Amino acid sequence: MLILAKKADNVETAREILEDTIRTGAALNKFKEFVAAQGGDPEVIDNPELLPKAEHIIEFKAEESGYVNKIVAIEVGLAALVLGAGRETKESQIDLAVGVVLNKKVGDYVEKGEPLAYIHVNDMSKLKDCEERLKRAFQITKEKPEHRPLIFGVVTKEGIQRY
């Protein structure tokens, strides 16, 4: 983005600018401004204990040992939605205390019974549906998955540069 905005001439310079923005605290301060501009309390950034807490935190455990081969993001998102972490309609109320915290990522080895995620839930009647979605989200295999890059390439007006 810095290169496209002509704030940096190359990736190395852009990285230096970004790292400096993080190191000086400017990025954190800008984030606090965003939170305040949207009506949030920027104090929670420095004091996360001020955030709402769910009544229950449930471990979502691996049913078998192996490697996390795939995590289907849409299923994780829908699992959180079931709990009330998002809106099904624009009138839906969001429960700010609920959600899903992933404990493993693709490529991690997991033992049977080890937590893959933690479910933060207030309404226990929603737990089963959330767990079903998480079962569909995680794929465990015996073989370690091939490492996949986070960024596959960059599209510019000159074409596609693949990594």
Number of helices: 5
Distance between the termini: 18 Å
The level of helicity is 25-40%
Low-confidence stretches: none
> Would you tell me the overall average pLDDT?
95
Q: How much strand content do the residues show?
A: 15-25%
Q: Radius of gyration, Cα only, in angstroms? A: 20 Å
Please identify the structural class as seen in this structure. alpha+beta
Question: What's the architecture of the largest domain, going by CATH?
Answer: Alpha-Beta Complex
How many domains make up the coordinates? 2
Structure keywords:
163 residues; Aldehyde Oxidoreductase, domain 3; 2 domains; three-stranded antiparallel sheet; 5 helices
Summarize it.
The chain has 163 residues and is of the alpha+beta class. It is built from 5 helices and 8 strands, in the order H-H-H-E-E-H-E-E-E-H-E-E-E.
Structural write-up:
This protein folds into 2 domains: 11-46, no CATH class; 52-141, Pyrimidine nucleoside phosphorylase-like, C-terminal domain (Aldehyde Oxidoreductase, domain 3, Alpha-Beta Complex), CATH 3.90.1170. Helices cover 32% and strands 23% of the residues. The chain is built from 5 helices and 8 strands; from the N terminus they run H-H-H-E-E-H-E-E-E-H-E-E-E. By secondary structure, the chain is α+β, with helices and mostly antiparallel strands. A 3-stranded antiparallel β-sheet has the order 1-5-3, covered by helices on one side. A 3-stranded antiparallel β-sheet has the order 4-2-6. It is globular, with a radius of gyration of 20 Å.
